[in-house]
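Service request form, structural biology core

Requester: graduate student, group of Dr. S.
Request type: structure prediction, single chain
Budget code: on file
Notes: please return the result as structure tokens.

Sequence provided:
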Amino acid sequence: MAIKPKETVVPFAVHGEGTGVYQNLTAGGHAFATDAYPAFGGQDSAPSPLFYALGALTSCNQVTGSLVAKDLGITVTSWNFDIVGDLDTAVLVGGAEGNANFDRVEVRATIETDASEEQFAQLVSETERRCPVTQLFKRSGLEFDNVWTRVESPATV
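Core staff response, request fulfilled:
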């Protein structure tokens, strides 16, 4: 007897192929590439997979935040994210024992919105809870610093 999959599950599939540390990828009809810094054996001709991981974090926060804002009935006029990941390369490059993950990731978001302070607090907490990429980072055990700042939309000032 086959188990019926959940109707809410959407598969995300990526295909990659390459040589050396350079890789061409396709996903959902989109093409992109990854490479690495010369110190890691690459030519720096495309973003590193680590940049894509941090980029996924910022963009997934914006997608999730947009869904949450809609649920809360608030308008977000603009999103501005700065994300920094501290990576000790001793495991990746040198083969040292330990965890190859980022030691720490810091998210700084400035959101222009008509949300009240209470609604904004809900926006932040619900986005953090519902964002799949945020949860990947948080559940990996690294130090995760997530600070959002609210800026009132010009129409509400």
